[in-house]
Amino acid sequence: MRRNARIRDNKKTVSDKIIMWSSIGVGILTVILIGMLVYSKSLRDEVRDGTMSLEQMANITGNKTQNTESEDKTGKNENTQSASTDVGKSIEQAQNELNNTTVNTTNSSLNQTNKSNTSNTANTAKKSNTSKTNSNTTNTNSQVESKKELSFVMPVDGEISKEFAQDNLIYSETLKEWVTHSGIDIKAEKTTVVKAAESGTIKSIKNDPRYGLTIVIDHGDNMQTVYSNLLTSEFVVEGEKIEKGQSIGTVGNTGVFEVADDSHLHFEILKDSIPQDPNIYLK
Question: In angstroms, how far is CA 280 from the centroid of its own chain?
Answer without folding.
Answer: 50
